[in-house]
Design a protein that fits this description.
- With 132 residues, the protein is mainly alpha-helical.
- The chain has one domain: Tetratricopeptide repeat domain (Serine Threonine Protein Phosphatase 5, Tetratricopeptide repeat), CATH 1.25.40.10.
- It has 7 helices and no strands.
- Helix 4 runs parallel beside helix 7.
- The radius of gyration is 15 Å and the shape is globular.
- The chain starts with a helix and ends with a helix.
Length: 132
């Protein structure tokens, strides 16, 4: 199966969606370690598809948020922080782009997503006792 997944990830433009959805299913069934692996494969698919432009795509931030969430659930707090912060950077970059600023209907969902990530970070810090 691993070989087939590698083939999909290198050939299919939308492989990241498949990997992300598989990871979502695994996460829902509490198979967090495997879900994390699939989310990371989804991120790799995005990098392969968009090359150096992958940091300008909302799909990248979604996968990063998923990786962060699973890392948090696995109690890997440093990794969760790293991926949440990276997602915030990307969402900020996308929402500040001229393409999005010229189309307000695209801006609101990005700002909403960024707000959710900030809430996740706040909850994480509160749980760690670093935020009150």
């Amino acid at each position: 199966m691993e070989d087939r997944l590698e083939k999909i990830s290198s050939e299919d433009d939308y492989a990241f969606s498949i990997m992300n959805e598989l990871a979502n299913l695994l996460r829902k069934h509490d198979n967090l370690e495997l879900a994390s692996q699939f989310y990371k494969k989804a991120l790799l698919c995005i990098k392969r598809r968009y090359k150096t432009d992958y940091l300008n795509h909302e799909s990248t931030s979604k996968v990063l948020i998923n990786i962060a969430t699973v890392s948090y659930l696995l109690q890997n707090i440093p990794e969760a922080l790293k991926y949440y912060n990276h997602a915030i950077e990307i969402l900020g970059k996308i929402s500040g782009s001229q393409r999005v600023l010229s189309n307000p209907s695209q801006l609101l969902p990005l700002l909403s997503e960024e707000g959710k990530v900030h809430m996740s970070l706040a909850n994480l810090f509160k749980e760690l006792g670093e935020y009150s």
